[in-house]
Amino acid sequence: MHYVCSLLLLLVLVVGSPLAGWAAGSTAYDHSLHETRARSAGRHLVTAHLTADTKRVVPGAAPGGAVGSAPVRWTDRSGSHTGVVAATENQKKGSRVLIWVDRSEKATPVNSAEVQPGLLTGSVVGVATGAGAAALAGGARAGLWRWHDRQCGVRWEKEWAEVEPRWSHRSEP
User: Fold this and answer.
1) More confident of the two residues 130 and 113
2) Nearest-5° angle of CA 102, CA 104, CA 107?
3) Which of 77, 82, 84, 160 is the most exposed, having the fewest neighbouring CB atoms within 10 Å of its CB?
4) Between 107 and 58, whose confidence is greater?
5) Does 67 score more than 70 pLDDT?
6) Considering only CA atoms, which of 98, 108, 94, 101 is closest in space to residue 78?
7) φ, ψ for residue 23 (rounded to 5)?
8) What contacts 76, CB < 8 A, 6 or more positions away?
9) How far apart are CA 161 and CA 173, in angstroms?
10) 132: pLDDT confidence band, cut at 50, 70 and 90?
11) CB-count burial class (<10 Å; 0-12, 13-18, 19+) for 28
């Protein structure tokens, strides 16, 4: 009996845990994607080009971090436009940057989380759920073995109580 249960728990561990992780991760990713799309409603993504080199203008900013504003130019269906967005240090004039543009042609920089919305969230939720399911299956298996060992011990003591007096000849007058 306990071998069948162990086999079922192993099946849950090998198949169920990854499926649970995938399902939870996919759901978290889809939710994050939906939120990002709702936030970006009324904006569209364009590729702009810097019209000047950027310099480090924020004291103490980490290398490669945001440095402040930089002028950009982009072209879309309605023509050529200019704007100012946050940029990183030491980008050269003509460098490509992704920006959001709203209906009033106001430009805002693209956050890397908006380019791959929910990828980290979905991954973390999926891994955590899979690991949790695996831990539950492992805990259930350990509990099953413990219960089985106790049952075997109880049966052994009961049978020994019946056999021991005959073997030790205590039952003879």
Assistant:
1) 130
2) 50
3) 77
4) 107
5) no
6) 101
7) -65, -45
8) 44, 46, 101
9) 18
10) very high
11) buried
